[in-house]
Design a protein that fits this description.
Layout lengths: L11 E6 L2 E6 L5 E8 L5 H8 L2 E3 L2 H11 L2
Antiparallel strand pairs: 1-2, 1-4, 2-3
Length: 71
């Protein structure tokens, strides 16, 4: 596998790719984390927000979300 270090940004976006939640850096194009969280596992309101690229203001909020919804 090919790994590269990506410096976290101040804010993030949650989006969907292949029916899974993906975290993008604030540039909206650089993938920060492939979460492995299926979009279908989330509440409908959150699904809709993520399909529109949900803004996450900081790293703490991001990791709170990941802890809440990852298995």
């Amino acid at each position: 596998m090919d790994y590269r270090y990506v410096q976290p940004s101040a804010s993030f976006y949650l989006a969907v790719s292949d029916n899974e939640v993906v975290v993008y850096l604030e540039d909206r194009s650089t993938v920060y984390i492939n979460t492995g969280i299926s979009l279908e596992e989330l509440p409908e309101q959150i699904q809709l927000q993520i399909m529109d690229m949900l803004f996450v203001p900081d790293e703490e909020t991001l990791y709170d979300f990941l802890e809440t919804y990852s298995s």
